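tokens incoming
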């Protein structure tokens, strides 16, 4: 993956139960993430919940898991080896801890086999007390991280674009590609923000609240899930078409369907 070869963007949705994971599978979500949103941006779910999701999905879709903030994170037992593809720790309150990089390395070394670590950069890193995303990304190279997630820590303080411009996000995305890392955009993204950011072609858009009936701690909504899957796929196809044939305009039918979906979402938000 290089700056000249954009990714086909896929959809990650965070779930808090096996039933929600099944909903995601039925809707065609590409990557299912296990977390407990009541515990924060990267709140760790109970291990029983992780086990339930793993058993229900049974290898039919890739899984990732949030393990909380590094300063208080718990590990993942070895018996999850091969069951969880990605695992991540947040970096809140690490900026002023001189040993944060050593702590991060030790936490990664304790992950189950074949559980790829994800580096997390918070867009609102100053208020989170986290190292800047650029520093996280630079350190990730030495820790065998396989992906870089750009998220927000405080969900009350605006979405991703309230903290980083499209130009800044593109700079981080291209740096991740040069480091051969997958890049994920998250942070209270609604359909409008996803449409705005889609030309950058991250590897994944990650959502929770946009797939719920209202707030991120509410249950997933099946209709919104299907809408998200359709819109992300449609936007990804349009980006691919423009990259292959710059002179060919976006299909009016797909553009109309996407705009309609976004308009309907905002009317119902």
């Amino acid at each position: 993956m290089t700056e000249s070869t954009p990714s086909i963007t896929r959809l990650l949705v965070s779930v808090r139960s096996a039933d929600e994971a099944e909903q995601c599978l039925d809707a065609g979500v590409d990557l299912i993430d296990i977390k407990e949103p009541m515990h924060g941006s990267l709140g760790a779910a109970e291990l029983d919940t992780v086990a339930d999701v793993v058993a229900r999905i049974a290898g039919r879709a890739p899984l990732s898991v949030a393990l909380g903030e590094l300063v208080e994170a718990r590990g993942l037992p070895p018996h999850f080896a091969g069951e969880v593809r990605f695992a991540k720790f947040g970096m809140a309150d690490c900026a002023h801890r001189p040993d944060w990089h050593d702590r991060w390395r030790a936490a990664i070394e304790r992950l189950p086999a074949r559980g790829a670590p994800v580096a997390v950069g918070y867009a609102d890193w100053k208020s989170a007390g986290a190292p800047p995303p650029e520093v996280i990304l630079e350190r990730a190279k030495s820790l065998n991280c396989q992906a870089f997630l750009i998220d927000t820590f405080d969900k009350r303080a605006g979405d991703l674009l309230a903290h980083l411009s499209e130009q800044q996000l593109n700079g981080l995305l291209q740096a991740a590609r040069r480091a051969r890392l997958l890049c994920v955009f998250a942070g209270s993204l609604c359909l409008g923000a996803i449409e705005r950011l889609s030309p950058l072609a991250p590897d994944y858009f990650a959502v929770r609240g946009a797939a719920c009936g209202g707030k991120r701690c509410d249950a997933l909504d099946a209709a919104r899930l299907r809408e998200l899957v359709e819109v992300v796929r449609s936007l990804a196809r349009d980006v691919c078409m423009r990259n292959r044939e710059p002179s060919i305009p976006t299909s009016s039918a797909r553009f109309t369907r996407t705009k309609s979906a976004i308009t309907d979402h905002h009317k119902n938000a």
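note: Confidence is low (pLDDT under 50) at residues 246-269.
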